[in-house]
Amino acid sequence: MEHMKPHTDLDIFHAVVDAGTFTGAARQLGITHSAISKRIAQLEQRLGAQLLIRSTRRMRLSEAGQLYALETRELQERLRHVEQEIAEGSGALKGRIRLSCSHALGKRQVMPLLLRFMERYPEVIVDLTLSDAVVDLVHEGMDLAIRSTTQPELGLIARRLATNHRVICASPDYLASHGTPRSVPELAEHVSLILNLPGGFNAWGLTSLPDMRCGFLSNSLETLHAACLGSRGIACLPHYLIADDLASGRLIPLLEDVRRDGADTSLYIVRPETSILPRRVRVLMDALIEGFETG
Fold first, then answer.
1. Which CDD domains does the annotation name (predicted)?
2. pLDDT at position 87
């Protein structure tokens, strides 16, 4: 007698659609070819329609099969999430969480919180992607992201974490060589270090930023930070990235009194609006929110 794993009809049907053959689906699900064939036949009998058209060389979806595949794909995913949620609710947290944030933020503020979370929930696998570019959460299959922005994207569920205060700054050596700007127009005589990504980051929180000679561009805040410490020009950097440098005098804040109200962005934790939230993701969100509040 065949031993059948508890796969649903949807699991089996979509495995056949994805694999293109009963043999491929059987290999994917770990059951036999005959078990696959039997379950598909039972499904077609229950629906009263042929879903798969078989021939000696290939298999294709019938019109009814195409409709069934289209309309049940999301249902299958939702069912998988619900079953996973129920299984998690009865035991220890486990599974993978995919998270995205910028390099500097990830290393300096997020990673310590993740280490604390992983120590508490050792069966959860955290998959962290660091990128200073905005990652498409749905396309990349991300559960969460931490973003610095004035307004979260439409289509995302967002929770504010903290203010992301930014500071216009330069090294003492740069200022000794080029002078210290005392007003916004005086910036025109200086060299800028800017982020080569779209968005309002390079406005520096000023009503109008004069044309400056560009000394260095990068897609990474950390490399702008290094260039600023290396006396290559003036940059506008997050306070969390340069707090130690400001305290030690390695960097000097500039024009703090002329930055406009609302110039700072906020840090948000965001997730796709349509996703079902597994318990492990909800617990990580709570841990990150608490960590930023107490940090």
1. PBP2_CrgA_like
2. 60
Topology alike, domains 9-89 and 95-155+274-294:
no
Nearest to 169 by CA among 263, 220, 238: 238
CATH topology for 95-155+274-294 is D-Maltodextrin-Binding Protein; domain 2 (3.40.190)
Whether 256 has a pLDDT exceeding 60, the answer reads yes
pLDDT in tens, 66-108: 999 888 888 877 777 676 666 656 567 888 999 999 998 999 9
d(CA 169, CA 216): 15
Which two tokens mark 237? 């950097």
C-beta pairs of 238-245 under 8 Å, 24+ apart in sequence? 238/104, 238/105, 238/148, 238/164, 238/165, 238/166, 238/167, 239/164, 239/165, 239/166, 239/167, 240/104, 240/105, 240/108, 240/109, 240/164, 241/104, 241/108, 242/167, 242/169, 245/169
205 close to 169: Cβ distance less than 8 angstroms: no
From 186, 253, 193, 201, select the one nearest 224 (Cα to Cα): 193
Residue 177 pLDDT level (bands cut at 50, 70, 90): very high
User: Residue 191: helix, strand or coil by DSSP?
Assistant: strand
- Sign (positive/negative) of CA torsion 90, 91, 95, 99? positive
At what angle are helices 33-47 and 22-29 packed, to 10 degrees? 110
